[in-house]
């Protein structure tokens, strides 16, 4: 389970963006979180991905409560969760070629050989052709870059995926391809998904269930 329990979070502890938000994703389950712009979905997604420390509440990953993330959450928990953001250009180092962008988590966790062998395979699972792997982010489209960001997020074989408006900048066919790649990965690895967005039609089609922000964070601020 990926459990968010009574989370209060924001960017200034005196004025949190929201209080008491709770949401649980079961093993292998896909949950869509829907809500209006600015309510705090991305902030909660970053808490779920262990990238943003909440001011109060508990995050529990596979039965382990996340502790000691004064600076960063423990690596073995962070790497259990793959994350894709709305704007690939903000999360992709502009100097890296797509192949290195995809290989980075494997290399950084000391698996250099695996990085070499698995990068082409990861690229293929997201529909990236080999000729694109030598390009840098500014030399590819948003959709191609987002495919690389998804491949990177899948590289450490996470048990959980957090997709924050992953397809909001993309056209319909690229959206369908990325959703299909996520679903293929989830089927093969039994991974759970938290998909955050504002597109009800997409999330209802994609996910096992959807949650409205007002039901997730009934306390508001
Ligand atoms: P949503 O994803 O639902 O649009 P966000 O979580 O992005 O909402 O934002 C919630 C609130 O937090 C907004 O008022 C936004 O301006 C604010 N916010 C988001 N990121 C930051 C940040 N890095 N620093 C300060 N405020 C932020
Ligand atoms: P360090 O602790 O050495 O600063 P990290 O443990 O944060 O590095 O991350 C190691 C590598 O794994 C980095 O390249 C980072 O981009 C990648 N990484 C970390 N968390 C995730 C994640 N949830 N999904 C995909 N890649 C990740």
UniProtKB/TrEMBL annotation:
InterPro entries: AAA+_ATPase (IPR003593), ABC_transp_ATP-bind (IPR050319), ABC_transporter-like_ATP-bd (IPR003439), P-loop_NTPase (IPR027417). GO terms for biological process: transmembrane transport. SUPFAM superfamilies: P-loop containing nucleoside triphosphate hydrolases (SSF52540). One of its GO terms (molecular function) is ATP hydrolysis activity. Keywords: ATP-binding, Nucleotide-binding, Transport. Residues 2-221 form the ABC transporter domain. Belongs to the ABC transporter superfamily. This is ATP-binding cassette domain-containing protein. The lineage of its organism: Bacteria, Bacillati, Actinomycetota, Actinomycetes, Kitasatosporales.
């Amino acid at each position: 389970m990926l459990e968010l329990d009574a989370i209060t979070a924001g960017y200034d502890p005196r004025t949190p963006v929201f209080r008491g938000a709770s949401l649980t994703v079961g093993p292998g389950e896909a949950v869509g979180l829907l809500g209006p712009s600015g309510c705090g979905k991305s902030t909660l997604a970053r808490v779920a991905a262990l990238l943003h420390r909440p001011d109060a509440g508990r995050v529990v990953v596979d039965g382990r409560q996340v502790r000691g993330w004064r600076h960063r959450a423990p690596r073995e928990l962070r790497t259990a969760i793959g994350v894709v953001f709305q704007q690939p250009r903000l999360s992709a180092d502009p100097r890296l070629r797509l192949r290195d962008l995809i290989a980075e988590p494997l290399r950084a966790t000391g698996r250099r050989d695996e990085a070499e062998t698995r990068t082409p395979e990861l690229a293929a699972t997201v529909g990236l052709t080999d000729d694109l792997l030598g390009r840098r982010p500014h030399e590819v489209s948003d959709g191609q870059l987002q495919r690389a960001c998804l491949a990177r997020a899948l590289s450490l074989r996470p048990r959980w995926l957090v997709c924050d408006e992953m397809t909001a900048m993309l056209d319909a066919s690229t959206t369908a391809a990325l959703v299909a790649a996520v679903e293929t990965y989830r089927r093969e690895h039994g991974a759970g998904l938290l998909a955050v967005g504002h597109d009800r039609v997409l999330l209802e089609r994609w996910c096992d269930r959807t949650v409205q922000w007002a039901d997730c964070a009934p306390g508001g601020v």
